[in-house]
Each structure stands twice: as structure tokens, then as C-alpha cells.
Amino acid sequence: MKKCVVILSLSLSLLGCQSASKPSPIVKPFPVDPPVAQPVAPATTYTPPPAATHISGANQVEDQAMLKFCLKELDALKKVDAKQYQGKSSELNHLLSEAKTYVQVRNSLNNDMSVILDSAFQYRIAKTCNDIRVDLTQSLLQRIEKR
């Protein structure tokens, strides 16, 4: 009899474990429509921003005005500090010579390379002109402070 009680209690305990591991009743999911394939738009070609085309001539008047002003500031630097003028004049002349060579071969390059090099030359020329402006300003301020 003890055997029966032990077997019965063991069976009941196993049944309890079995019922605990049963999954809960399934809840019906909210109906979802199947995904619809979206057509893919054809790839578009890259068009450079307007600022990247200055060397190519799109804003040639603007470039010439900036360069003209830069040369005026360089000339003013010559009158204020001849030593700095020599260095900046040499740097600007070298850069303009390189830009002239680049413009001559520009049509032989692909568009991506032209965009990159246009931007690089614009940056270098603008940086050199800014350096000239800074040197001119500092030289003038130093002259004022000496007196």
C-alpha cells in the first residue's frame, strides 16, 4: 500500500510539472497584411554643388573679383612688410601656376576627380588669400603698437 501511495504521489507531482510546462492558450494574432514589394527608383547621377564648379567657369566673375581683392591685399602687404610679401607672393604665384596647369588638363579628367580638384584649388587659394589678409592685418597692428 505504501508503494501505491508513493507511486500515486510521484505520478501526481509529475503531472503537476507536466501541466506547468504546457504552453498557455494561443492568442490569435492581429491580422497583418503581407508586405507589398516597393519598386526601386533608378539610381541618380551625382551632380556637384554649385560651389564646386568655380574653377570650371560657372562663377568666374566671382572668382576673379575675389582674386583681384586678394592681389590688392598682397600689394598692400608689400608696402607694409616686404619680407612677408615675398613669401606670400611666392606661395600665391606657385598656386596660381599649378591651377593654370590643372585647368589645361581638366577636360581630360573624369567628373568626380574634377569636383575634388576644383574644391581643393578653391580651398588652397582661399586659404592663401586669408593668410595674406591675416598677415596684412597683423603687420598693420604691429606698426600701430610700436608708436
List the helices and strands and how they pair.
Layout: H1 2-20, H2 60-80, H3 82-105, H4 111-146
What does it look like?
This protein has four helices and no strands. The longest helix is centred in the C-terminal third of the chain and has 36 residues, at 111-146. It has helices spanning 2-20, 60-80, 82-105, 111-146. It has a domain at 52-146. By secondary structure, the protein is an all-alpha fold. Helices cover 68% and strands 0% of the residues. It is elongated, with a radius of gyration of 39 Å. Keywords: Signal. This is Lipoprotein. Residues 1-19 form the signal peptide.
Would you kindly provide a brief summary of this structure?
The chain is mostly helical and 147 residues long. It has 4 helices and no strands.
Average pLDDT taken over every residue: 77
First-residue to last-residue Cα separation: 122 Å
Tally of contiguous helical segments: 4
What composes the largest sheet?
none
Q: How would you sum up the global shape?
A: elongated
Radius of gyration: 39 Å
Strand content: under 5%
Find the structural class using helix and strand composition: mainly alpha
Order of helices and strands: HHHH
Number of strands: 0
Residue runs with pLDDT of under 50 for 5 or more positions: 8-12, 43-54
Q: Which percent bin holds the helix content?
A: 55-70%
Signal peptide: 1-19
Protein name: Lipoprotein
Keywords: Signal
Organism: Rouxiella aceris
